[in-house]
Amino acid sequence: MTAEATGVRLECDGPVATVTLCRPDVLNAQTPAMWRAMSEFSRDLPGDVRVVVLRGEGRAFSAGLDLSVAGASGPGSFAELATLPEQECADRIAEYQGGFTWLHRPDVVTVAAVQGHAIGAGFQLALACDLRVLAEDAKLSMAEVTLGLVPDLAGTGRLVDLVGYSRALEICATGRRMDAAEADRIGLATLVVPNADLDAAVRDLTAGLLANNRNAVVEIKALLAGATGRSAADQQRAEREAQTRRLRDLAGLGE
Fold first, then answer.
1. DSSP assignments along 68-136, one per residue
2. Secondary structure element (H or E) that encloses residue 252, with its range
3. What are the per-10-residue average pLDDT scores of the chain (255 residues)?
4. For a tag on the chain, would you pick the N or C end, based on fewer CB atoms within 10 A?
5. Distance of alpha carbon 161 from alpha carbon 146, whole angstroms
6. Is the CB of residue 155 less than 8 Å from the CB of residue 100?
7. What span, in angstroms and rounded, lies between the C-alpha atoms of 163 and 189?
8. What pLDDT is stored for residue 1 in this prediction?
9. pTM value?
10. CA-based nearest residue to 22, from 44, 6, 1
């Protein structure tokens, strides 16, 4: 499927892959076809890719779910999902989640370059990434509740990890919008930069991620990603085991 058909494209340049939402005429509103395409990108990544950058074409990152699709009566619509048996409906949503969860891969670092609106599914796509660089005009909202829905694209756990339960509940249950300054203050943003500097800031961050040993970065990501689920003793053991692997690898004794 072409980018014109799916609304999203993958471009690889050495160790950097860029995923671009390319429906600027509708502020990169998302569809099930886009989620399926993004899920397939994980299988298409060359082995030398170390950083994946997510961006939106035009003036918005993503305005969220395309209600002209979801609100209709065809494939992928709310009406169709509601008529499916419960397990089949859940399985369909699991398929959609795959368009987001591949960004959790342990062997790459993922960066969202966010300008303008990142609403609902757009906010969850930014949350799926390891790092978020926000332009000053960014507006974030977990707006699913305003449609009587819940966030279901793997964003709730990430949000709690970043801002804590109480703040996550307030954000999700009100559906309110927050600006880049607030996102920075509560820990959602890695960087906030002027709009004109967004691309340069992402390039600089990417260069910093690529400057160091790939296997060390992979081990660090795994240590940090699993830290909240481990006891202190288990985390310390994980550090020891990771360091042992690094020492052996650097000495030429790795597998």
1. HHHTSSSTTSHHHHHHS-HHHHHHHHHHHHHHHHGGG-TTSEEEEEE-SEEETHHHHHHHHSSEEEEET
2. none
3. 88 98 97 95 95 98 90 79 94 96 97 98 98 98 96 97 97 98 98 98 98 97 96 98 96 85
4. C
5. 23
6. yes
7. 11
8. 66
9. 0.95
10. 6
Interatomic CA distance for residues 194 and 202, integer angstroms: 12
Parallel/antiparallel/unpaired status of strands 131-135 and 109-114? parallel
- CA 37 to each of CA 9, 82, 96: distance values in angstroms, whole numbers, following the listed order: 8, 23, 10
Query: Among 32, 27, 174, which residue's Cα sits nearest to residue 114?
Result: 27
Contact present, 34 and 3 (Cβ < 8 Å): no
Q: List, in sequence order, every residue forming a beta bridge with 193; answer none if it has no partner.
A: 135
CA separation (Å) from 203 to 41, 61, 118, 150? 21, 17, 21, 34
Q: Check if the beta carbon of residue 127 is closer than 8 Å to that of residue 162.
A: yes
Residue in 215, 219, 191 with CA at minimum distance from that of residue 203: 191
Question: Looking at residue 77, what is its pLDDT?
Answer: 83
CB 163 within 8 A of CB 177: no
Q: What is the 3-state secondary structure (H, E, C) of 57-86?
A: CCCCCECCECHHHHCCCCCCCHHHHHHCCH
Cα–Cα distance, 31 to 23 (Å, whole number):
10
In contact, 127 and 161? CB cutoff 8 Å: no
- Residue 104 CB neighbour total at 10 angstroms: 15
Q: Which of 128, 184, 190 is closest to 159 using CA atoms?
A: 128
DSSP 14: T
